[in-house]
Specification:
357 residues; mainly beta; Porin; 2 helices; 50% strand
């Protein structure tokens, strides 16, 4: 260990005189257990991320979004390669990374340990370094791949924080869909007085490829705008997104508001989607402090034309157990229009611990 520390120290000293950017690194680790029906799933996750920033000396700070290695319970792993063949078992799939690299096949065992779930091979995000921001006193300009402009998705009501909570649950018959809200584009955010403003435009909303034909007739573009305005004791936000697609355009407007109530915050929202099939969503959430713990409860209802309403109730309580460490419990329950075409459980409970470094 001492030799390793000495080597790292020498390398660090060698770079001190030449480094031009501030480099920040973050890491995390979590252990979570989900109970849903007669199934118990365990997820062990980790993450590591990098970001780079530099002051140009003229009042502008340039930031490049960093590469993030993260666990995702919805994919097999983060090893690059072609898609794996689908494999269905009654339990969660466990992938042996060495075998996947060598043969590009999935080895499974019947154990409810969520190293991963599903049978889709997915690489680490290749567009991670293709987004850059310029921040000044007037606002922040960002351009690149995988720019997100889902400003109209102001919905509240889902207070869960773990991806594991929704694993294995029935599909919702009614749900909003904003269309293409990520891709190659540009965004700008600023504030004027107490009003915040965001404007975004995607040249191509079909993905984050670093090469696309800007003059093509079939490009699907997206324009979005949002503003947040204080109104007395309330904070009101309005977002609008218009996404073009070959089949039909999707226009979405979302409104949300929040205010202090007691020792917490009460939030409400409404989202309306105008597309080939229209849908709406309303939600409510309340978050309050209980000593050193934080409690959140939420309710959300979605209504899609031709489908039954889907209701969702969620709750989460989190307790700090030290600097960068916490334990939490959360639940999700679905009712109404669920699982018409896809069977599944309608409720789950997750217990977990999280560490950030």
């Amino acid at each position: 260990m001492k030799k390793l520390i000495a080597i790292v120290s020498v390398l660090a000293l060698g770079f001190i005189g030449t480094a031009k950017a501030d480099i920040t690194m973050s890491a995390g680790q979590s252990l979570e257990v989900q109970s849903s029906g007669n199934v118990t799933n365990v997820s062990i996750a980790g993450s590591l991320g990098f970001a780079f920033s530099q002051d140009l000396g003229n009042g502008i700070t340039v930031t490049m979004s960093g590469l993030t290695f993260d666990n995702d319970v919805s994919v097999v792993d983060n090893i690059a390669g072609p898609a794996d063949a689908a494999s269905t078992t009654a339990n969660i799939i466990v992938v042996e990374a060495a075998a996947l690299q060598a043969t590009n096949t999935v080895n499974t065992v019947t154990a409810n340990v969520v190293t991963a779930e599903g049978a889709s091979n997915k690489a680490v995000d290749a567009d991670a370094f293709e987004q850059i921001s310029f921040a000044s006193a007037n606002g922040t300009l960002t351009y690149g791949a995988d720019v997100e402009v889902d400003y109209a998705d102001t919905g509240v009501g889902d207070v869960t924080g773990s991806d594991l909570t929704g694993i294995g649950l029935a599909s919702a018959d009614s749900a909003i869909a904003l269309g293409g809200t990520a891709g190659n584009g540009i965004s700008y955010s600023t504030s004027m007085g107490g009003t915040a403003l965001k404007i975004g435009y995607l040249f191509a909303n079909g993905g984050g490829n670093d090469l696309f034909d800007a003059s093509a007739d079939a490009n699907n573009s997206t324009v979005a705008i949002s503003t947040a305005v204080p109104v007395g004791p309330l904070t009101a936000s309005i977002g609008y997104t218009s996404a073009q697609a070959a089949a039909t355009d999707t226009n979405t407007i979302g409104v949300s508001t929040s205010m202090a109530v007691g020792n917490g915050t009460l939030s409400a929202s409404y989202v309306s989607v105008d597309a080939a099939t229209d849908s709406t969503e309303m939600g409510f959430a309340y978050t309050a402090a209980m000593g050193s713990a934080t409690l959140s409860v939420g309710y959300q209802q979605a209504d899609t034309d031709g489908q039954d309403n889907t209701n969702m109730t969620t709750a989460r309580i989190s307790q700090s157990v030290g600097t960068g460490a916490s334990v939490f419990a959360e639940m999700k329950n679905l009712s109404g229009g669920t699982g018409t075409t896809t069977a599944g459980e309608t409720s789950s409970i997750v217990l977990g611990s999280a560490f950030t470094f």
